[in-house]
Amino acid sequence: MAEQMDAVQPTAAAQERIPTVIADELHIVYRVYGTGTGKGSATAALSRIVRRRPSVGVREVHAVKGVSFTAYRGESIGLIGSNGSGKSTLLKAVAGLLPAERGKVYTHGQPSLLGVNAALMNDLTGEKNVVLGGLAMGMSREQVRERYDEIVDFSGINEKGDFISLPMRTYSSGMAARLRFSIAAAKDHDVLLIDEALATGDRAFQKRSEARIRELRKEAGTVFLVSHNNNSIRDTCDRVLWLERGELLMDGPTDEVIKAYEKQTGK
Ligand SMILES: Nc1ncnc2c1ncn2[C@@H]1O[C@H](COP(=O)(O)OP(=O)(O)OP(=O)(O)O)[C@@H](O)[C@H]1O
Q1: How many C-beta atoms lie closer than 10 Å to residue 267's C-beta?
Q2: Of all protein residues, whose CA lies closest to atom 1 belonging to ligand 1?
Q3: ipTM exceeds 0.95
Q4: DSSP notation for 164-176
Q5: Which part of the chain is the ABC transporter domain (predicted)?
Q6: Rounded distance, CA 149 to CA 24, Å?
């Protein structure tokens, strides 16, 4: 009888815990070509193609090794680990930008990766980039028009003059990163992936970004944040995944994981 009740009416806990991203024994391998020491001539390359032999200079980098986790709606998850531990690679794989060598990533809804390198057009004005970025994220022209002022205000680009009508190439790296973040943060995301974006703005902008991330979480999205700034992670995330050499070393509440990480790294 109890089983039947459960089937018809999910418990409150089950309602709250809606999975948005599942990584199942995920492996990501990069292949780097042209790393051989010998000189590669065109004839040698042609003969390899004809004889179907792999290139001598291919190196493999196994960047993510058997990582498994489930992320739920409303969670904000920090990714930490030393340089080269696989954080950005894992984020790109969740965004669907890198193929899995083995294992799988399942996502509910459309994940959006917000990197400091997100592609905007340097020769276009900030104004045009807001429209372009909004459309690229799947917003309608109408939605972009509605949110335009909000995006520009949030970015703070116009605080010191009319910069939004200048080409993006005239912006400082911090200004460009703020505009990227503001464009991405204007949309309500199912799964928002942020790579170091918070580290680039000034303190006031970082505070605004943190507040917006909290809002996005309330609007039922899941946020992933890669950062080397443990305070940013502490202020924004309730759960942390710690990667080292591509392996998931620890997955748990922020305080516990950061404490263990700081103990190990001596920071
Ligand atoms: N495009 C690429 N081609 C080949 N190898 C790569 C590529 N990108 C990353 N790697 C390698 O994959 C591994 C993980 O890199 P990744 O950028 O994911 O680490 P990270 O934890 O984000 O590092 P950081 O904190 O320095 O940004 C590293 O060994 C790196 O050299």
Answers
A1: 9
A2: 30
A3: yes
A4: TTSBGGGS-HHHH
A5: 44-267
A6: 41
